[in-house]
Amino acid sequence: MVINSTSPMVVVANRLPFTVQKNPVTGQMERKHCAGGLVTAVAPVVVETEGLWVGWSGQHQEDGVVEIPEANPNDQSPTAGLKSWQVKPMMSQKTLFDNYYNGCCNATFWPLFHSMPDRAIFQQDKWEAYREVNEQFAKLTVEAVQSLSKSNPETIPLVWLHDYHLMMAANSIRDRCDKLGLPIKMAFFLHIPFPSWDIMRLFPWDDELLQGILGCDSVGFHVEDYCLNFIDCCQRRLGCRVDREQMLVEHNGRTVSVHPLPISIPYDRFVSLAEKAPQVVKNNEQEQLLLGVDRLDYTKGLVHRIRAFETLLQKHPEHIEHVTFLQVAVPSRTDVKEYQELKEDLDQLIGRINGRFSTPNWSPIRYIYGCVSQEQLAAFYRDSSVAVVTPLRDGMNLVAKEFVACQVSEPGVLMLSPFAGAGSSMHEALLVNPYETDEFAEVMHRALTMPKDERELRMKQLRHREREHDVNFWLQSFLKSVDCLADNNLTPGRLLPL
Ligand code: ADQ
């Protein structure tokens, strides 16, 4: 990987890039790698620029001090090169952290930003906990920056804040660094959608939140629509002067640049996994698989999708015994009531449909509730005829891209919701509105019966685009966006013309 950045990168994310666990046999603390696009892409940059990663370790202050162990000598993961001094665990009091994480991040921002305001709670104490934990993150980040600047006073660290957990940290980081005379560049990237002004204004403290994000020099979202929503909110709520063409927002005498930076996957890695993965066992040679892979989350539209599959079997009984829906769902936020209810609804729905349509030799739905290895996932992607990626709302959606990368033999068909960020660039997918059940079933039928030459053509173009715009491309685009614009903010004056 070529990294065009000389600044040490300080990544600040809710989570560390690995968890720390006690080995039950040796009693020693060990790193447990968390697979994920962000860690795979960003950890090598932190290693190479001798930067730092600030995040929650999974423990609380009540649990005592966490010592970060060095990587195991056999560690092959992208975080293996991170020395223990480069990992800064954030620890908070348990109740405070719970109000921040479960209370505000997941019960307010997650549903609100996915345009599901009826599911969101708006509580002052949760919001205060959010601000306080962001302040704790800010304090630790500045200590980290200080330690870097001591050992290398020539460089200007690049602080990169990630996601909806950390929208209120930037101004505190900036103020503290200013007082210490520490120059920094600061960027923010949001992994979920940024909603329209109509939704954002429902949040009682929207002005503070927007000002929080504007504390950065550069702000990134997956797609242009989210950028424009953000710019719109800044103009309408804060009265900022904005330039929509160049995507600039003026605030407090500084100009903040806004960038569409569509995240992606390590494309080549998925290709080679798919080339090696073992064959998926099917009922018979002709059986076609429809595939869904998601975290079990209400934004992912699992219930809508399974209902559409039921309609397919009802309206096109020729698929009975020839088509199976394979749904893989990773448990997520299992201690939250809404997620437990979603699991129950899905269990019941799948049970009912299997009861209704199963024959002695076939059941319509195979359902895996759990995590599967990337090798297994690659096999599912490769051997499925259709991937059904139909969230009700999704920042980007990496599953759509992983499926495309794994199409190394017989080309399959991608069905995609226009409400996922991926929908705005993967034009050759069959777009389907997950709320429109009958049409959804018809598009499933079309995908299952699509002629080979059409499948080939669509998949070829999808694969070409994703190969060119992989996760490395995303990272390089981000570094470029920071290099061109943040320097101007260090020498104030790049304000919008009056
Ligand atoms: P997520 O909501 O987690 O990410 P997504 O982008 O689809 O959604 O990523 C899910 C990841 O989990 C994929 O890499 C997938 O392979 C993996 N996965 C899913 N099910 C699995 C299973 N059963 N076993 C193992 N792995 C599984 C958030 C936003 C997205 C945005 C990403 C990145 O909500 O919109 O695309 O961040 O910015």
From TrEMBL:
<comment type="similarity">
    <text>In the N-terminal section; belongs to the glycosyltransferase 20 family.</text>
</comment>
<dbReference type="GO" id="GO:0005992">
    <property type="term" value="P:trehalose biosynthetic process"/>
</dbReference>
<keyword id="KW-0808">Transferase</keyword>
<protein>
    <submittedName>
        <fullName>Trehalose-6-phosphate synthase</fullName>
        <ecNumber>2.4.1.15</ecNumber>
    </submittedName>
</protein>
<dbReference type="GO" id="GO:0005829">
    <property type="term" value="C:cytosol"/>
</dbReference>
<keyword id="KW-0328">Glycosyltransferase</keyword>
<dbReference type="GO" id="GO:0004805">
    <property type="term" value="F:trehalose-phosphatase activity"/>
</dbReference>
<comment type="similarity">
    <text>In the C-terminal section; belongs to the trehalose phosphatase family.</text>
</comment>
<dbReference type="GO" id="GO:0003825">
    <property type="term" value="F:alpha,alpha-trehalose-phosphate synthase (UDP-forming) activity"/>
</dbReference>
